[in-house]
């Protein structure tokens, strides 16, 4: 049996009642328990307490926080706080449970194994049918283009229209939440932003950027603009390098892309159209930095228009 502090205090109290001196009590404890015995100053202090009439060997309650609060009750309390509010902060936990920062950190990371992470932004919440359509399409493309090793991938060009904003968006720090080890990472639907902006269409192939077409002020993206201004410029850039290259176009299912006018334009120029699963990611937002696109747009807007001789 391993003796704790209260056990030794009881022995000291017994020796005190026996009439042993402080030194005699210390020597006896030291001979019986060696280095596990309390120090002489501890024996002396407890003799003084007993001389003042104290009979209890329990620790007296003290003002302020206890030395150690990492106990099951506090751990469970922190767990419940997190479940109630995934945005709860260290200071809120401290104020609610009267636990110091060091103990909070220990409970969160060593006992609950939680970490605070940002929600991953997603364009849409897909249905199961939409998810399946995306997976089926990806499998079809992998098979058709031989896991990406087919030379036909050099004929694929993709693009999309996107708003380019004149400011850096806010960080995602405000959306951070606590996540337990066995929980899935949270997601958050991307919210629209309102400030000065420029609509552009950016196209690229496997070798990089092909063309960026800026939408003129007070115009909307429609079939007329897409087939008379945007696509002709993109196709022209492709034909500059490979006049007779086969072109496979990949764009999303926006109305300007799926209209009868656009389909007729592509058929007339013998441009193949690659399928696109509903609500799939927009390529330009993923593969190109906003700053790069904005630089291209500004340069294009600032340069004087030229005409062929």
TrEMBL record:
Start and end residues of each Mos1 transposase HTH domain: 5-53
Taxonomic superkingdom: Eukaryota
GO molecular function: nucleic acid binding
Entry-linked Pfam families: HTH_48 (PF17906), Transposase_1 (PF01359)
Protein known as: Histone-lysine N-methyltransferase SETMAR
Higher taxonomy: Eukaryota, Metazoa, Ecdysozoa, Arthropoda, Chelicerata
Gene that specifies this protein: G5I_03739
